Amino acid sequence: MVAVTILLSDPQVGAVPVVDSGEPLVALDASFGPRRALVRTSLAARLAIARDLLPEGIGLRVVEGHRPVAVQRAIIARYADQLQAAYPGLPAADLERLTSRFVAPVEVAPHVAGAAVDLTLVDNAGGELDLGTPIDATPEESGGACYFAAPGLSPAARAHRDLLARVLSAAGLVNYPTEWWHWSYGDSYWAVTTGAPAAIYGPVELPGSQQ
Is residue 196 within 8 Å of residue 116, measured between CB atoms? Predict the structure, then answer.
C-alpha cells in the first residue's frame, strides 16, 4: 500500500488543539552552526541528543529555526505566485494544497511556533554532506528530489538522509516528508504524526516583531 502524505493544509492538522507549554525561545549554540537559530527549549535539548548520536566527524548544521509570522506570510505569497505563473488558472483550493507541500499555512506553521528547524549534515571542516538537493529546493526546482523518500538519489545521499532520520527520530522529531531538511517537535504536525492529543507549541513572536 502506498503511504499517503499528509500536508500541512490538511484539516486534521488544523483541528489539533494547541496547549502551549510557554517554553521560551533559546538560541542554539555554535555547535549547530553560525546561524544560532532560535527554537523552543525542549527542541534545543532534543537536537543536542540527536547531534550526540551522530558518528564521530559528522555534525548538524541548523540554517533556520523560529520564523516571524510576517516572514512566513511573505514566503507563502512568493511561492504561491510562482505556482500561479507555472499553472495559470489553477483553482484556489489546488493552489493552497500545492503551496502547502512546501510552505506551511501560518496557523499551523511549525517555524512560526519555534518548533521546527531546517538542517543538514556537515563534516569536521564544516562542509555540507550530499543529501541530494540543496536545502529549500522546491519540488519544481528539484524534480521532486526534495521529498525525503524520493527515488533516484545517489547511494551517498540516501545514506545521509537515512542517518539524519535515524538520529532525529530517536530524539523525538518528525519530518515533513516533502522536505528532507525540515524536522519538528511539539507542533500540530508533530501531534498528528505521533498521535499526541495536542500540540505543545503554538505561534510565538519576539518582542517588537511585526505580525
Answer: no
What integer best gives the mean pLDDT of the chain?
92
Ranges of each domain in the chain? 20-194
Contact 38, 66 (CB under 8 A): yes
Alpha carbons 60 and 95: distance in angstroms, whole number: 33
> If one looks up domain 20-194 in CATH, what number appears?
3.30.1380.10
Confidence at residue 13, expressed as pLDDT on a 0 to 100 scale: 95
Q: Look up cell 503554538; give the residue.
A: 202
Query: How far is 186 from 174, CA to CA, in rounded Å?
Result: 9
Identify the pLDDT of residue 205: 86
Q: Residue 207: which pLDDT band, with cuts at 50, 70 and 90?
A: low
b/e map 169-203, b = 16+ CB within 10 Å: eebbbbbbbbbbbbbbbbbbbbbbbeeeeebbbbb
Backbone angles phi, psi at 209, to 5 degrees: -70, 150
Determine the Cα–Cα distance for residues 7 and 15; give it in Å rounded to an integer. 13
